């Protein structure tokens, strides 16, 4: 199979053409692309200094249409040492709107414009919404975004300045997502959690890590997870590189969640294949406060398939981790900073050692969460 021949598949196994404007399967489950063959280093377009240098790894029509791009990708990989373990920190706050979401939204928005979508609906705790707002502005698409009323004000301001129509919704992050699904008949639901092309953009971070490390794979990748798009993006991207013969192994995917909202961690610990209903507390790591991830089954399977695991970080360790990273020159939001205490827990459990090549993703800028950080 070539990338151009790839179809979308729902959980029931039904296949759909990839060129249809569709955000979920007829069975109501999320769509994924059939496994793609991946690319080698000779297929990187080194003349392009953005994630689009890896566009040969993307399915049709992305190989042949003009991208909606703000220069996303090619973020720094900076080494820092924590308790004797050297960690490559992928600084995703360097993306155009300040978070890793730009990778997926750039690809998703490119497809939406190509498919003639002129009005898009999104729900977000902040970073996804501000990214959709920016890229829809660049694409000439009218964006309507539902956000929890408690969302960081800086993220809401950013989205509004990009011209998006913002509605603050009372309730939890999960309740906002449920409301968006109910409204999906009024505008095309361009949810970064549902849309299959979003993951195609996120997977390119794996290609970038591979190139950053001299065309080698790390032994482990540590990511914060809410909906789990970074988990799936890394699993898809490194899986493609492995199929292409470009790497010898797929790295273990290690996941961090805040203890106040850790449904994936709980499912891993209990040996479950999906998350269970639970009332979680609020958390400063708002980007990972998702009680029922849309792709929970796929995320849990990806963690297990790579021999990874997941750990929960107590709330009182989040803000000190922001301060620790800031004093190392890296200003990130609590959602990102949780990887530091998570790394220590993983080290104590023997999941990572000084012999590992670890890459951890710093998902978003501290500038987005200034109101939370006055006591750091």
TrEMBL record:
It comes from the Bacteria. Residues 11-27 have a biased composition (Basic and acidic residues). Its cofactor is pyridoxal 5'-phosphate. It holds the Pfam family PALP. One of its GO terms (molecular function) is threonine deaminase activity. SUPFAM superfamilies: Tryptophan synthase beta subunit-like PLP-dependent enzymes. Keywords: Lyase, Pyridoxal phosphate. Residues 68-364 form the Tryptophan synthase beta chain-like PALP domain. Residues 1-27 are annotated as: Disordered. GO terms for biological process: isoleucine biosynthetic process; L-serine catabolic process; L-threonine catabolic process. PANTHER family: L-THREONINE DEHYDRATASE CATABOLIC TDCB, THREONINE DEHYDRATASE, MITOCHONDRIAL-RELATED. This is Pyridoxal-5'-phosphate-dependent protein subunit beta. It comes from Mycolicibacterium mucogenicum DSM 44124.
């Amino acid at each position: 199979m070539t990338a151009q021949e790839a179809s979308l598949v729902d959980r029931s196994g039904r296949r759909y053409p990839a060129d249809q404007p569709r955000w979920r399967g007829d069975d109501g489950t999320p769509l994924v692309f059939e496994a793609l063959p991946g690319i080698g280093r000779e297929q990187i377009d080194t003349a392009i200094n953005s994630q689009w240098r890896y566009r040969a790894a993307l399915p049709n029509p992305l190989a042949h249409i003009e991208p909606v791009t703000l220069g996303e990708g090619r973020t720094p990989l900076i080494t820092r040492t924590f308790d004797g373990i050297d960690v490559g920190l992928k600084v995703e706050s360097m993306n155009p709107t300040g978070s890793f979401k730009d990778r997926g939204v750039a690809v998703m928005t490119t497809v939406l414009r190509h498919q003639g979508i002129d009005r898009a609906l999104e729900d977000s705790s902040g970073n996804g919404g501000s990214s959709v707002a920016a890229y829809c502005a660049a694409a000439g698409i009218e964006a309507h975004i539902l956000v929890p009323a408690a969302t960081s004000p800086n993220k809401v301001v950013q989205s509004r300045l990009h011209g998006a129509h913002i509605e603050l919704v009372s309730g939890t992050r999960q309740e906002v997502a449920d409301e968006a699904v109910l409204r999906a008949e009024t505008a095309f639901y361009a949810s970064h959690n549902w849309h299959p092309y979003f993951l195609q953009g996120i997977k390119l971070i794996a290609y970038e890590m591979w190139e950053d490390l001299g065309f080698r794979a790390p032994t482990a990748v540590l990511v914060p997870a809410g909906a789990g798009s970074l988990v799936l993006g890394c699993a898809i991207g490194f899986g493609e590189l492995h199929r292409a013969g470009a790497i010898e192994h797929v790295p273990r995917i290690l996941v961090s969640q805040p203890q106040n909202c850790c449904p994936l961690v709980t499912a891993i610990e209990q040996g479950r294949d999906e998350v269970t209903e639970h009332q979680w507390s609020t958390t400063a790591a708002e980007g990972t406060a998702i009680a029922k991830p849309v792709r929970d089954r796929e995320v849990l399977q990806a963690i297990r398939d790579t021999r990874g695991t997941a750990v929960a970080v107590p709330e009182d360790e989040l803000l000190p981790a922001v301060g620790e990273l800031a004093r190392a020159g890296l200003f990130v939001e609590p959602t990102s900073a949780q990887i530091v205490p998570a790394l220590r827990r993983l080290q104590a459990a023997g999941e990572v050692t000084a012999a590992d090549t670890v890459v951890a993703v710093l998902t978003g800028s501290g500038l987005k969460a200034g109101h939370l950080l006055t006591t750091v």
